[in-house]
Amino acid sequence: GKNLGATAGGFTEKDIALAMAKKIKAFAEAKGLKVVLTRNVDEYIDLTTRASVNGNVLLSLHINSEPANLGGKRNGIEMFTTVDNNDKVKQVKAKSLSQHLFEGMQNIEGISVRDSLRQANFALLRSSKALGIILELGYLTNKNDFKYITNETNQDELAKGIVNGILAYKEKSSSDKILETKGNKQNLKGYNIPNRVRNNEAMGKDKQLVQIAETRPNEELNTEQNKPVLANGVSFFAKDSTRVDKLNQVIYLYGSAVLSTRENSYQGSSIVYNKKDNNIKVYKASMYNNKNGRVIYVADSMHVNLNTSQGIWSGRTTVTNN
Q: Which domains does the chain possess?
């Protein structure tokens, strides 16, 4: 369309981005993913129309550039997500998606991939309901990036890496929703895990159990939006199910679980909260600061004392922001 984007050496951002989108679509559909392109031909599509396309993940493809007076030194693939401090879970998911995209592209030779997810106030990402990532696929103003991204064979390789990242994220998201029984017993050993809730009727009983187990004199239980808030300031939510062991004062959260204190929030595939000792175990875990919304740690598991915010981080641990 009318918006050429970055240009260099007879190549335009709009043409490379469209070519990459078509390649990603072809490779993704071959793997069983459903892909919708906002444009299939060289035409201009406004931001409102682009943002209105329904989907679980929105990838906005771009090619970067820098002013000529900077000498073409900037290089590499970069990823951006929107600034939305009101949706902490979406922030964590965006970080997870970007990490899988990075892992899908990191072994590609010929262009560097930055493993950090940057935040920016892009209108497209603000307007879309989907989990959005902007992918800047190198700098046309950098000689090395230009050589790489204008080569069709390299474009194929890069598209496959992106699709592999999406597939890995999809697999992780699915495993977050359904925990295998064997995995539960192994990971949560020593917590005397009750049977999981498997239907809406039982879920209703569980919500009542939370009220019975956690309400005490002078202790208010706020059940608005299914997020109970205890007198100690701890709130929690689980997409799949919640169980309460009243005798031992332990709460089990399964499936896209979130637990928040006044200072920090924790998100994972499952969370075990020991109210008596005020500590938690989080699996496939992320920890972020409530004040600025920044992710602090990402790990396979966390065992944290909520009184001190100190604990043990196991497996692959990434410090994303201090």
A: 7-177 (3.40.630.40), 181-319 (2.60.450)
CA distance 4 to 293: 35
pTM of the predicted model as reported, rounded to 2 decimal places: 0.55
Residue 303's Cβ-side half-sphere holds a number of Cα atoms within 13 Å equal to: 6
Between the alpha carbon of residue 208 and those of residues 45, 108, 177, 256, the distances in Å are 49, 52, 22, 20
d(CA 173, CA 284): 10
Which amino acid does the sequence have at 106?
A: Q
CA–CA distance, 320 with 138 (Å, rounded to integer): 22
CA atoms in the 13 A half-sphere facing the CB of 321: 17
| Nearest of 240, 252, 247 to residue 178 by alpha carbon | 240
Q: What is the chain's pLDDT, residue by residue, as a tens digit (322 residues)?
A: 677 888 989 999 999 999 999 999 999 999 998 888 888 888 877 777 777 777 888 888 999 998 877 788 889 999 888 766 566 777 778 888 888 898 899 888 899 998 777 877 777 777 787 888 889 999 999 999 999 999 999 999 999 999 999 998 888 765 444 322 222 222 323 323 233 322 222 223 332 222 222 222 222 223 334 455 576 788 888 877 788 877 888 888 887 888 998 888 998 888 999 998 899 999 888 888 888 778 888 888 888 999 888 888 877 666 654 4
Q: How far is CA 226 from the centre of its chain?
A: 22
Instruction: List alpha helices for the chain, DSSP H.
Output: 13-30, 47-51, 88-105, 123-127, 143-149, 152-177, 181-187, 200-214
Percent helix, strand and coil across the chain, each rounded to 5?
35, 30, 40
DSSP string, 85-143: TT-HHHHHHHHHHHHHHHHHHTT-SSS-EEEEEEE---HHHHH-SSEEEEEEEEETTSH
